[in-house]
Design a protein that fits this description.
346 residues; single chain; 2 domains; Immunoglobulin-like; alpha+beta; five-stranded mixed beta sheet
Length: 346
């Protein structure tokens, strides 16, 4: 071995298995450069294109789970319904079920009580006898009878009893409440051509109703002719004005009724007769509602068609006429008028 002289002049011997530490001897700047080179190499490795093996996505897919047998699934359901180890029913213990049932019972009891209180307050503000707010009263509509299943078509042969018997039966049912004995028992005689005002009575007091006797309908009453003219080819119909609470039709003048041909020759309608008159008398108004006007009998106008042309389809329109009445609405065919048809054969 050769001596190595140091800065102090001393000599040191180096054994053969001695290797110097380059990092310890390298200057600090050199060490920083090496670290920077390593970082650059790592970045280059990250930006290298993927190998074909890396693009094989199949190996990254999760492996399919083994199929469970029906017995295993049934066991899971059974465990879910009742777990004997944890003593849970459908995933909850008895204490948990008690708390959740108590919570929802209290919640829905509170909601029901709040809803009931709101309805109670609402009912206190609403009168069962008349509307609380009634800014606009629509004009009355008009209906007719007899009608079968809502069809405004009257078709029959005068010589065929079966063809018109159903119409006569409906007329009889409609006029039964108008029997003279019933009217005299329930209702009173009223002065005609004047409104029968009863506003001075208490709100819940029962109002009296005026008589409308069946015998006033003459040949359309069914008393003289139980067939109501159908057997003679001269049918009768009944016209009613819809009830409107508190409504005063005509503004002091009776509302009258007119009928004419809507489609067809005017002469095919023939002569018309109105019973008792072609007006709705004012004494039947105003209407106070079914809770107070218990025995109220709506007035009717009976129309007898004495000269209908046989084997002809005739469309007839009857309408109300008076102040405040609308009878030509393009959207509501029952507002102030009603249309129906006749097909009469011998």
């Amino acid at each position: 071995m050769e001596p190595i002289s140091t800065a102090g002049g001393a000599e040191e011997e180096h054994h053969g298995n001695f290797s110097p530490n380059p990092s310890a001897e390298a200057p600090p700047g050199k060490h920083a450069v090496s670290e920077a080179l390593e970082e650059v190499q790592e970045e280059l490795i990250e930006h290298q294109p993927l190998e074909q093996e890396d693009l094989n996505f199949e190996k990254w897919k999760p492996k399919p789970k083994p199929k469970r047998t029906l017995h295993e699934k049934a066991g899971d359901v059974k465990t879910y319904l009742w777990n004997a180890e944890t003593r849970e029913f459908m995933g909850r213990t008895g204490h948990s079920w008690f708390l959740i049932i108590l919570f929802y019972t209290a919640l829905y009891a509170f909601l029901a009580a709040m809803f009931g209180a709101c309805m109670w307050c609402l009912m206190l503000s609403i009168s069962p006898y008349h509307p609380t707010h009634n800014d606009r009263v629509m004009p009355p509509g008009m209906t007719m009878s007899p009608q079968l299943d809502g069809h405004y078509e009257i078709a029959f042969n005068a010589s065929d009893r079966k063809s018109w018997k159903k119409y006569a039966k409906l007329m009889e049912e409609q006029l039964r409440p108008y029997n003279d004995a019933v009217q005299e028992q329930r209702n009173i005689q009223c002065p005609q051509d004047a409104y029968f005002m009863q506003d001075e009575q208490g709100e819940s007091a029962e109002r009296k109703a005026c008589q409308f006797k069946r015998s006033w309908l003459g040949e359309c009453s069914g008393l003289q002719d139980p067939h109501f003219g159908f057997s003679q080819g001269k049918p009768c119909i009944l016209l009613r004005m819809n009830r409107i609470l508190g409504y005063l039709p005509g503004h002091g003048t009776p509302v009258n009724v007119t009928c004419g041909v809507k489609k067809g020759a005017p002469e095919s309608l023939g002569e018309l007769q109105f019973f008792p008159k072609s007006i709705f008398n004012l004494m039947y108004y105003p209407y106070y509602g079914k809770l107070r006007h218990v025995n109220y009998t709506a007035p009717v106008v009976a129309v007898r068609f004495n000269g209908l042309q046989y084997d002809t389809h005739i469309v007839v329109k009857c309408k109300l006429n008076g102040k405040g009445i609308i009878n030509d609405s393009p959207t509501d065919r029952f507002l102030g008028s009603v249309s129906f048809s006749f097909d009469v054969g011998a």
